[in-house]
Amino acid sequence: MKTYAVIWTLPAIAALRDIYNFIKSDSVEGAKNVATELVALGNSLTHLPSRNPVEKLLTDEPIVYRSAVKWNYKIIYTIEKDEVMVVDIFDTRRDPRRLKYEFQDPK
């Protein structure tokens, strides 16, 4: 079975940090649990990253984005040769148009 390197981009790390800080205001233990589970899900993409669907909200983009879901969060990623690039973590309770806006090519 092919193994992929999982690379977390700075925006994805920032999104994880924001999620952690938001939850921490209610529960430090809850924040740790959510962050740990999201990191584990992202890192599990080392094997069969194509098992998750193409992200429907981003099908108009020139890059193929996929998403893995845990609770109310989507880990948005791309597959490039031997690497999986985690590019964002999106809270699905937010307006879905915001995700599309975040990935628009600024022209």
Features:
4-stranded mixed β-sheet; 4 strands; 107 residues; YaeB-like fold; globular; alpha+beta; single chain
In short:
Helices cover 36% and strands 24% of the residues. It is built from 3 helices and 4 strands.
Low-confidence stretches: none
Summed up, the domain count is 1
What is the averaged pLDDT score? 94
Widest β-sheet, arrangement of strands? 1-4-3-2
Question: What is the CATH architecture annotation?
Answer: 2-Layer Sandwich
User: Taking Cα atoms only, what radius of gyration do you get, to the nearest Å?
Assistant: 14 Å
| Separation, N- and C-terminal Cα atoms | 40 Å
User: Helicity, in percent?
Assistant: 25-40%
Explain what you see.
The protein is an alpha+beta fold and 107 residues long. It has one domain: YaeB-like fold, CATH 3.30.2310.20. It is 36% helix and 24% strand. It contains 3 helices and 4 strands, in the order E-H-H-E-E-E-H. Strands 1-4-3-2 form a 4-stranded mixed β-sheet. A hairpin with a 2-residue loop joins strand 2 and strand 3. Helix 1 packs antiparallel against helix 2. The protein is globular. The mean pLDDT is 94.
